[in-house]
Amino acid sequence: MAIFKSMFKKTSYINLDSGSESEEKDGTGTKQPKEPSVPEGLWVKCPKCGKMIYRDDIRENFYACPKCGGYFRIKTRTRIRLVLDKGSFEEWGTDIPDKNPLDFPQYEEKLENTREKTGLREAITIGKGSICGQETVFGVCDARFLMGSMGYAVGERITQAVERATKERLPVILFCCSGGARMQEGIVSLMQMAKTSAALKRHSEAGFLYVPVLTDPTTGGVTASFAMLGDIILAEPGALIGFAGPRVISQTIGEKLPEGFQRAEFLVEKGIIDGIVERKNLRNTLSALLAMHKTEVSGMEFDRMYDFEDTARSVQAEQKDREVTKRSAWERVKLSRSQSRCTARDYIEAVFDDFLELHGDRAFRDDGAIVGGVATLDGMPVTVIGQQKGRSTKENISCNFGMVSPEGYRKALRLMKQAEKFHRPIVCFVDTPGAACGIGAEERGQGEAIARNLYEMSDLKVPVLSIVIGEGGSGGALGLAVANEVWMMENATYSILSPEGFASILWKDGKRAKEASGIMKITAEDLKELGVIEWIVPEKEPAESKNLKEIAENMKLHMKDFFYRQAGKTGEELALERYGRFRVM
Question: Model-level pTM?
Answer without folding.
Answer: 0.89
